[in-house]
Amino acid sequence: MITPLENIIIKTLCRLLIPFIQLFGLYVIVHGHGSPGGGFQGGCILAASFVLVVVAFDLPEAKRRFSEKLNNIFCSLGVFIYAWTGWMCLLLGANFLDYGILNKILPVNPVMARYYGMFSIEVGVGITVMAIMVSLFLDLVTGGKHEEALDE
Fold first, then answer.
1. Does residue 109 come out as left (phi exceeding 0), alpha (psi in the -120 to 50 range) or beta?
2. Fewer Cβ in 10 A, N or C end of the chain?
3. How do residues 111-152 score in pLDDT, each as one tens digit?
4. 95: in domain
């Protein structure tokens, strides 16, 4: 059983750690196309910060901070960013995710267009992985009954 003093220590420590964990997750996503890491790893780190909110506080508090509606928006947004990047390549006459062709709409050379294309893919993957991992965690914690779990 956790005593009230331990609970205060855990909550305070988590309030301090969670922003740094999220910042590191964003760093891994943003630098993933040019260094080790990437969208999947960064998305998992961001999702772990949400799990820490649930552990430190409780499920209703976590869902107040990051609602299911917002989670669904992030799921869709990440997939949209990924698909949009690929479709832009197709519309410009290249293969799906052939980023070099993006130089036709970006004021850069093909090498930098590939760089920005990979960046957008990493961001899309990171957002999607984060949202899906949070959704999977909530499904496991609540047994798939999200709204009923909040009433208990």
1. beta
2. N
3. 999 989 999 999 999 999 999 999 999 989 888 776 655 555
4. yes
